[in-house]
User: What shape does this take?
Amino acid sequence: ELAGVLLAKIQNSLDFDRNKVEDGSDVIIPIGDVYNAMINNDVLDMTHFTDPDAGEAEKEVASAFSIRKEEVKNTLTKVLNDSKAAAYKNQPKEVQAYLTYLVSDVLTNGTGVLMSKSIDTKDATYKAWKDEESINVYTYLNYAISKNWIDTSLLKDYIKSNEQYSDSGEVYQGIINYILDYINTDNNFDKLIYRYMIKSGTITGRQICMMLYEQNILDKKDNQYDSLKAGSIGAYDFIRSKIQSLEITPGQLGLEPCTGSLVATDPNTGEVLACVSYPGYDNNRLANTMDSDYYSKLLTNQSRPFYNNATQEKTAPGSTYKPLSAITGLTEGVIDVNTYLPCAGVYKKVTPNPKCWIYPSAHGNLNVSQGIQHSCNDFFYEVGYRLGLNSTGDSKLDNDTSDGKSTQNYYSSERGIAKLQKYAEEFGLGDTSGMEIPESDPQISDDNSVLSAIGQGTNNYTTSQLARYITAVANKGTVYNLSLLDKVTNPKGKTVKDYTPEVKNKVTDVSSTTWQAVHEGMRAVVTSEHKDIFTKLNASGVQLSGKTGTAQQSQTHPDHGLFVGFAPSDSPQIAFAIRIANGYSSTFAAEVGNNVMEYYYKVTPENELITGEASNIGIGSNGGD
Assistant: This one.
C-alpha cells in the first residue's frame, strides 16, 4: 500500500517547492527526491564511489562530486569572510541550505560551538537571523561572539593567537577554520551537496540507477539492466518499475509515506492479536555476531526501523475520534439520536471559521449515525460547541443562528474540553494501553472543544492506544489493559507465569440506544460511505464496522491516514487500529483494513492479497475524512 501511494504521488520533476502548496494533500514527490534518497538514506554507499573497484557510474559521480565540493567550499569561504555579503534571505536557495546546515546542524546542535543555552532568543539580532533572515552570516556569528554565545574552548586548535584571550576577529577566523575542517569529512554535508547536484541534473537519474547495479543492490541478471545501460529505458520509468516490484521499498526510500502500523485485539479478552510496525529489520543479523554495518544503516535510516510506530509514534486521531465525541454528546444530553444538526460546509459559531471536509459542498441536516457515516465535521463541531454551553446557553439553542448569536456568550471551551476529557479517560485514552513494551504517553486534548471533537485540538495518541479505545467501542464499554504476552514456560514447557489482560474499567453510563446509534454509523461507513473499498468483504457476508480518520500535520506535509474497526459488527471477535503516517488519505488506511479483514476471514486467498507488487490504490467512491 505504501509503495502504491508513493507511485501515485511521484512525478517526473527533479525539484518541488512544497512551501508553495496550500494543503498537505497537494504535496507531490519529485523523482529527484527518489534519486536523492538512494544516497541520503544510505541505500547506496557513497564511500564506495572512490574505491579502486568502483563502477563506471560511481567513478563519474565521484569525479563530479569532488569538483563540486571544492566549488561549494570556495563559495562558503567567500560568504563567511564577507561582511557585506547578501542577507540570508537574498542568498540562492542552495547557499541558504548550506548556511543553515553550518549554523544550526554543525555549530549549534552538532558541536555546541554556538551554545544554544546561552542564546537569547528574544534578542533582536538573533531574530533578524533566525526569523527575519535579514542579516548575513558574518553579522550573526560576529554578534554571537560579542555576546559570549561561542564556546571558544572548542576552537583552541583553530585560533592562531598564543595569547590567553583572543580578539573577536581571531575567534571568528577560528570558527571559519573549524567549519571548513569539519565539513571535509562530514558525510551529512556531502549528502547535502549530492542533493543539490541531483536537483540541478549534474548527477543524473541514470547514474543513480546504474550505481544500484554496480553496488549489487539490484541484480544485473534482471531483464532491465541492459535496457538501462543501453538507454532504451529512462531512469524515471526504471525507478518506478523497481518500486512497483518492491525491489526498492518505501522503507529504503524514507520518503513520505514510508511507515505504517497496525494493532489488532480480541475485544472479548483484551489480548493483542497483532502488533505491527513497518519498516522492520532482520533480528538474525543483530544476534550473536552482530552485523555492524547493517546495524549502522538501521540507526541512520530515515524511516527509523528501530522506532515502533505502533506504540511510540503519536499523531492526532482525526475522525476516528468522532465515535467518542458522539458518545460524549449523547450521554451528556446535548444531542439525542433524533437530533438533526446542519452542515453548511463552514462552521460560523467560532472564529476562525473551521470547515467541513466536504467544503465548498455541504452535508445538510444529519443525525448522529449519519454524522459518523459521512464523517461530517460541522456536525461534530456543533457537538463540541454544545458541550461547552451552560444551562442558559442550552435553553437558547432553539433560537440560535448559524453564527451563534443567541448562545455565544454562554459558551466556554474549557467546559466542553472537561467533558470530552472525562470520556476520553473512561475509554482508556488517558494512559498507555497496558502492553508490556515501551509506549509513548498519550495526550488528551486540552484546547478548543470544537476542534477537539473532530479529533484535532491537542489530541495525540499511538496506534496501540487507539486500538484499546476502539476495542472498548466494539465490546460496548469494557476497557482492557491490553497484553501482548500469553505465558512464560520453562524449558520443559511447564507454565511459569500466565498473562491475562486485566479489565481497567467498565463504561457504565452509556445507554443501549447510544451504542446502537454509534455502531450503526460505523457500519454505514463500510456499507455505504466507503463501499467501493469493501465491495468484496461486504458481499462475503462478513460484517465490518469502521471509521476513517485524516489527521493534519502541517500544510507542507501530507496528512496522516487512519482507520479503526471491528468485526463481526454484531458480535465482535477482532478490533483494530491502522495508521499510515503522512499517508495523504484515510482511504489508503481503509484499504489496508479491508485487506487485513479479507485475509483474517479467508475471503481472499493470501497469494492474491500479498502479490509482491505495489498496490493499485483507489480513491473510494465518496472521498471523505
Notes: The radius of gyration is 28 Å. The chain has three domains: 2-24+33-51+189-253, 63-186, 318-530. The chain has 24 helices and 13 strands.
